[in-house]
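Annex B, item 7. Sequence and structure tokens for protein A, then protein B.
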Amino acid sequence: MLLKLSRTVPLKKLISSKSFSTSAKNNVKVTVLGASGGIGQPLCLLLKQLPSITQLSLYDVLHSPGVAADLNHINTPTVVKGFGPGELGNALQDADFVLVAAGVPRKAGQTMQDQFVATSRIMKDLAVACARENPKAIYGLISHPIISSVPLFCEMFQKANVYDPKKVFGVTTLGVIRANTFIAQEKNLNPSEVHCPVVGGHAGITIVPVVSQCKPGVDLSTERLKMLTKRIREASAEIFEAKFGTGSVTLSMAYAGAQFTTNMVKALKGEKNIVETVYVRSDVVSGAKYFSNQVVLGTNGVEKNLGIGKLNQYEQELLEAAIPELNRSIDAGEDFAAQKV
């Protein structure tokens, strides 16, 4: 079966695409949680341009009605509604796909664990509300650190007896976008024509670029490959340093979230063989309950897990080194879910 690696297509082309097959859903409602933040606002601006989204609901503790009013002045068909404190249930009502972008931005000197501690209370409260208000929706998390936030979210859905592992996952598209971009820069290629799988997690050494499976194939020296791997893994720090410690990843994450949503909506509308990269509960790799790799999206979320394919020796070594850190992050999410706070 020929699978469409649609995430390598520029977002502009995805937005303008009208090549949908018979629709599984005629009207698609998308909700963004954390819609007024540094990621949320540019994300919602991009989503407003998707003609395939019938309604876009925005929720945040501040400013969402104002953001919605601003977006509704844009001449596209998507209707935007803003919801504030006490209105989360209304924002989630009848949503088909929910993007969770809420959290606390990274601050100078913070480790990944520090950021999770700052964000975990928010994520837990949102998970409880989502499980109660709309357990049938598909949930894509982009709140960092994804590798801890997703297990926390899933545990809360399990406590509510509404957990479906196909419908709750982390959106790790940004790792693939970065790998494609950096490889293209290295080899003087068009980034939109490069596809490099990225597996594992979504932070630091948990990120494993599978350059051996890159299309088109690229030839890199061992030294350049190690430098490229390091850059992909430390890309967030590169942005943080470029912003002089006063900001974190926002615009590129918003772009990745919009690109994923474009493909998720296509799948919801019945288009087949839509491939994306998500961090999801699976048994793809022995010893890790959650793992990021390519999947086929469908009307119920993850339709098929495509695994990781064949790795070369260097990539296998990267993967083996990533598993312990990945498990520490998974444990942190599950442990916080178990706390009675």
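Protein B:
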Amino acid sequence: MLRSFVFGSLFCALLAGNARAQIGSVDVEVSGAFASKYIWNGFDRIRSQGLDVGPVLQPKVSIGLGHTPLHVAAGGSFVMNDANELHETTYHVYVQRFSSPFTRVGLGYTYYDDRISPIPGAYDNDVHEIWSSLDSRNMSGVHTGVALKYEISARDAYDSFFCANAEFGYSYAAMPATPGGLGLDLNGVTRVLYNTSIESQGVALVQSGFSAWQAGLSADFRAAGVQVTPFLTYQVSLEEAVNDEDPLWGGISAAYAF
């Protein structure tokens, strides 16, 4: 699994560099994260696949096309548990732009392609996701945001459902950005998650309602175009069908834009 991750990351980076070389007016960002758990819309996505806990490796390459708000991206989540592995590849197409200097809107589509190896004939957990978002921040560091997602399972037995979240956060510039690009921000965020009923063949697996509350801390270190972010998040699960525990997870991410 680690070998697949390394080769996949190098391949994505080569594609990004080639796109940058051939098209001068593109924005490319290469990023990756290492996390102790994979929490998706409040759900522990690793345990929902019948596996155990993490950790998870999550590489991603995003390309902004020209000077337009259109982006395409490819990424994935790679988890090893005992003798089994979860290989999830994600494909993204989205538009994202600032409607004002402090307000950003987004609309996009994501496809989750799941494979569990080496389990033969593992059932299809692929998901189509249509999402929209709105977030804003002010000069004092206060951040607010809302997001709405429509999840469509590739399995006919599962009905589509909506997920929504609202968040409030604050960023403190512990080291204001210098002309050389050095900087350090300390961030805190709280988030409330809501979902409509999740049903399979007419049976409600998860009732509609507020499913989870999250609180997180992170720090953004910036230097020479690279941003490194250690993070820690705690979730209070309000629905046992979402999680039968209150997960705590952490990790570190890195991103480079060129």
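Comment on protein B: The helical segments are 2-22, 45-48.
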